[in-house]
Amino acid sequence: MPNPNASSALLGFAALTPTYNDEGIREALANAVFGMNDAPCVLSGRGILVTRPAHQANALCALIETAGGRALRFPVLDIHPIADLAAVQAGLARLTRPGEYDLAIFVSANAVQYTLAALTPRAWPIAVKIAAIGAATARALAAQGLRVDVAPARDFTSEALLALPEFQSVQNQRILILRGAGGRETLRDVLSARGAQVDYLDVYRRDTATTDASVLLEHWRAGAIDAVLIASTESLQKLLAIIGTLGTALLSATPLIVGNARTRELARSLGLAGPLVVARDATDAAMVDALCAHFAAAQAQ
Questions:
Q1: CB 50 within 8 A of CB 60
Q2: Are 257 and 287 spatial neighbours (Cβ–Cβ below 8 Å)?
Q3: Are residues 103 and 245 in the same domain?
Q4: How far is CA 74 from CA 236, 251, 258, 277, 297, in A?
Q5: What's the DSSP call for residue 237?
Q6: Contacts of residue 3, Cβ cutoff 8 Å, sequence gap at least 6
Q7: How far apart are CA 296 and CA 187, in angstroms?
C-alpha cells in the first residue's frame, strides 16, 4: 500500500495528501496486475498526469504511487448537478410510477450518485431492472444496495452493452437512460431502432474545470511529466482547451494512455503524434496496466 502520508501534486492548485482507506481504492489496489506477464511494475519516480475529476482520482493516484510513480493531479472536468432540478424530479417521479419503465441504464458512477441523491427518500422501484455500462458504475450501485441485472464483463462501452443478448430483443420495452447532459446518442439510437421506447434523464453536467495551466506547463517544460492518462474523448477535448497551443505541442511529444479506441482516433485526428496506448478499458487498474506495459516495452528496446 502507498504511504498515506505521501503527497501527490494537484497541479494548478496546491499539494494535497490523499487517503487510501476508501473501499473502492482498496479493491482497485487488490485487483491491479502491473505490467506485462504479471511482472511487477516499477514506474521509478516517473511523473504521471492524472486528468480524472478530483473526486474520482484517488484510486488511480494510489495505483500509480504503489508502482513507484508520482501522480500529478490535473482534473479537466468538474461534475455538478443538473441545473433543472425540477426536470430531474419529474423524471424520477415518472420512474417510480408502477409500470412506467422496464429497465434503467446507468451510464456512469456519477449518474448513480446524482440519481440516487435526487431520488431520496424514495426507494428504487423494484420492478425496474438495472443495467450498468462500467465496472465503477456497477460498484457504485452495489454500494447503495442495488443489484445490477445487466452489465458487460469487459470493454465497458455503450457498444459492449448493446452487444449483450439481453439487448437484442427489446421491442416495446420501456427504457430510461440516466446520464450526464450532452452524452452520446448511441444507446438511444440503437435501442430505438430495435423497437424500444427510450427516454433520457440528465442528472448531472460536465463542465471544463476552472484550472490554471501555467503550473502544469512549467512542470511539463521541465520534464516532470512522463505520461498522460486520458479516459475519454471529452477529457481529451477539455485538456486541449485548457492547455492551449503550447500544451498541445508538449502533449504530442508525451506518451498518452487512453481508455478506448475512440479516444485514440480523436487524438490522431487532432495531430497528436506521440506514443499512444489504448488500455483494455478505462478502469483505474486497466489504465495503470497499460501505462506499465508501455514503459516496460520501452525499457526492453
A1: yes
A2: yes
A3: no
A4: 12, 14, 16, 20, 26
A5: H
A6: 65
A7: 37
Rg (C-alpha) for the chain, rounded Å, is 20
Q: Which domain does 112 fall in, by range?
A: 80-205
Residue 259 included in any domain:
no
Is residue 139, in this structure, part of any structural domain at all?
yes
Q: Which three cell numbers stand for residue 225?
A: 511529466
Q: What average pLDDT score do residues 100-111 get? A: 96
Chain-centre distance of CA 179, in angstroms? 13
What's the structural domain count of the chain? 2
Per-residue pLDDT band for 298 (boundaries 50, 70, 90) equals confident
Between CA 228 and CA 253 the distance in angstroms is 11
User: The cell 494535497 sits on which residue?
Assistant: 16
- Identify whether the C-beta of residue 118 lies closer than 8 Å to the C-beta of residue 203: yes
pTM: 0.81
Q: Are 64 and 70 in contact (CB under 8 A)?
A: yes
* Gap between the Cα atoms of 251 and 225, Å rounded: 10
Contact 133, 105 (CB under 8 A): yes
Tens digit of each residue's pLDDT (9 = 90 or more) over 137-194: 999 999 999 999 999 987 788 888 999 999 999 999 999 999 999 878 899 999 999 9
Residue 86 corresponds to which cell in the numbers above? Answer: 425540477
Torsion of CA 220, 226, 232, 235, to 10 degrees: -10
